[in-house]
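JOB MANIFEST
job_type = single_chain_structure
chain_count = 1
residues = 249
[input]
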Amino acid sequence: MVQLVAGTRAVECNLVVFDKNGTLVDQQSVLLELAMARRNAVSKNLSLKIAEHWEKAVGVDLKKEEIDNSGPLATLPRREELLVTATAFYLNDVPWRKAVSLASKAYDEADDSIKPPYGSILFDGIADMLQRLKRHGLKLAVASTDTHRRTEESFKALGIDSLFDAVVGGDDVTRGKPHVDMVLEACRIVGTGVGDTVVVGDSLSDIQMGLDAGAEACIGVLTGSGTKEELETLTDIIIDSAAELGISD
């Protein structure tokens, strides 16, 4: 096994499972591009009034360019967010079955309108860090609430796809974060035990996922939604950025 270094701590592991948005890439830029595309599609298929209600329902204020990092858009896999959207339509007098159909139609149109890397911007030093870990023999995986396809295409456009041994999207598992399914699926694909795995993420749901799965360690980063005070309630390994991760000689 390889000794992964995070701050003053060193942890032996074979696999590192990273969250994507807020950990490897800037969550704000990804969500704003996605939100704008989906709002435009909702407005086109229904009305401007319903599009404004949709923003509130999923935790978006596009005029202020603000995203609620604990809201549906930021935290839910697509299939669960669709139910929130359909409910917003239903509360605006759209019959339920039609609301479900229109929600899916609008999201399909929105997702097709944006291209890789879908607003993803790597945080400084992330590509170098991933290459460093890979050179020393660590297996790398990503566990994202985003879809498998969008995650893979984003990484390909960013030039880091070849560094990952496993990609697990929100549509690859039955239960999203903070349930353990994504970590277990990454371990299954790579062929390593969860006890030899480290989870790295910016949110409480990332850390809780790793803890409940039985990961060797969970590392919190301060580049996303979680504050130091929040992350300290679940882990004592917290660093400013995933770019700081290193290997012990």
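[summary]
The chain has a mean pLDDT of 96.
The longest helix spans residues 27-45.
exit_status = 0
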